Amino acid sequence: MYQVLYRKWRPKKFEDVVGQPQVTTTLKNELKSGRINHAYLFTGSRGTGKTTCSKILAKAVNCLDLRDGDPCGECEICRGIDDGSILDIVEMDAASNRGIDDIREVIDEAQFRPTRSKYRVYIIDEVHMLTEQAFNALLKTLEEPPEHVIFILATTEVHKLPATILSRCQRFDFNRIAPEYISARLKYVAENENAEITDDAAMLIAAIADGAMRDALSLMDRCIGTSNKIDTEVVRNAAGLARKDYLFELAAACINKNTAKALSLISKLHNESKDMTRLCDELIDHFRSLMLIKSTKNAQQLLIMSADEFDEAQTQSDYLSLAEIVYIMDVLQNTYNRMGKGNSNRTELEMALVKLSASELEGTNEALVARVSALEKAIKSGAVQVAVEPVKPETKAEPEVKPEKAERIPEPIEEPPAPPQMTEIPKAEPEHTPETKPEEPVTPTPVNLEDIYNNAVPFRQWPEVVENIKKYSRGIAAAFGDTNAYESGNYLLIDAQTEIPFRLMREGSQRENIRKAIQEITGKVYKLGPYKKPEKKTEKTDPLQKLIEDAKASGIKVTEE
């Protein structure tokens, strides 16, 4: 009978396990030193080697000729475990045996000594599926099992395990396997299976597998069923993926606002039986690649792309701003979340592409930011000319200001300390009218901070400003997410619960970005500072005087002596 590749090429010793040195090295050292624990917990995403390491560990603790921490695979115990003749290794699927009766049966069996091997090993897969009563029944035995029993628990959702179970096990976390490790393993397997696989095809399978070696071997198994010479086209057909050129064409249709082209491509892919949900996910990943290219210096090291594909992606990213890319990803992500819940998946994807290729249909803040960003880019490049009408000077004469009555103009609060420590706004040099004599200094009138705080009113456009700050820095926008703002004349006062927003305002470059974001929304240039709630003044009254006034109000005659 044919044996699938992921079972046929399952590692037989720790040395063959790919991409989990933090687990295999520790287990080998413990086996060599004889420090064997009574309970292990293996956790990680699917296909990363949890069950494989459980089987190797069960064999290693019973091996008669342990070799550098690995089972020999040749002694009678190793051979017996491989062919199933030794029944002291028990594998249990907690997804189908999750009740208290199943666990009680395990506990009863654990009291008997193994027949041929040194340890009786229980491998409980998907242990998070056990019921609460089953966990409670397992606790005591898991904490103090018989000396001949070892428990190995495996799960993909460790957060569902009770803390009492976690504290009784030695935990090992399995990472997602890196694409280069998966690619190297696929080439090794293909060579031994008399198949040929290209480097690009191996990396594409690794990307689709998303860190799971089992998924990668299963996909290559399907590819070998199609052809012994595996290239990217074979992989895409076996996985039901759209070719990269379709993704670039769909992205180009969104960039060029070509709705008809986008819809015709969707129709063509649908007729070719491409899965619309998977296609939407691929589009999100494609624009993620553009986002990384736009925002990082070494994007090619982070992306699984050929050199030609990377050059084409880099060209597409040049036509988009970061705000536009994030907006496109947001629309596609919302579409992906709605798929399968209402309209057909094809209709959902078509609606998304119509939005992206005709962005005037979308009225969200993200869409408006993206459109404004595109307009600014067009203006800077000269593609759009803006006519500015000259401002006619007013003929009304300005009133003269005498030197002795020159008003104090407050300076911006550029370096704001914490609100309680702030006493006054820094002084500035007074302004002079042409009639003011420079040799006669004018003493400026200091501005009362209390008046500024008392006259402050809520600034209603502040949420829109915070959203606009994302264009300059999403980190700054996040820092101002839970803040409020108040307007007092030409001051904009920030009310924050933490010191982080004030630290950002003290930095020149960050403060300038915040000012720009405010000016783009309001058209005004504000001076920034912290907000302090005005204190309510309470008048002190004499208790005796209050008593006299109350008595008079009640009609009692009071003589003042």
Any descriptors?
single chain; 561 residues; alpha/beta; 5-stranded parallel beta sheet; 4-stranded mixed beta sheet; 11 strands
Describe, in plain words, how this protein is organized in 3D:
- The chain is α/β, with parallel strands linked by helices.
- It contains 24 helices and eleven strands.
- The strands form three sheets. Strands 2-3-4-1-5 form a five-stranded parallel β-sheet, covered by helices on one side. Strands 8-9-10-11 form a four-stranded mixed β-sheet, covered by helices on one side.
- Mean pLDDT is 79; it is low at 400-439.
Strand-pairing-aware structural class: alpha/beta
Instruction: Using the alpha-carbon principal axes, give the shape.
Output: flat
Distance between the termini: 119 Å
Instruction: Give the low-pLDDT segments.
Output: 400-439
Number of helices: 24
Helix content: 40-55%
Q: Count of DSSP E strands?
A: 11
Rg, Å, rounded = 36 Å
What strand order characterises the main sheet?
2-3-4-1-5
Compute the average pLDDT: 79
Tell me about the biggest sheet?
Answer: 5 strands, parallel
Strand content: 5-15%
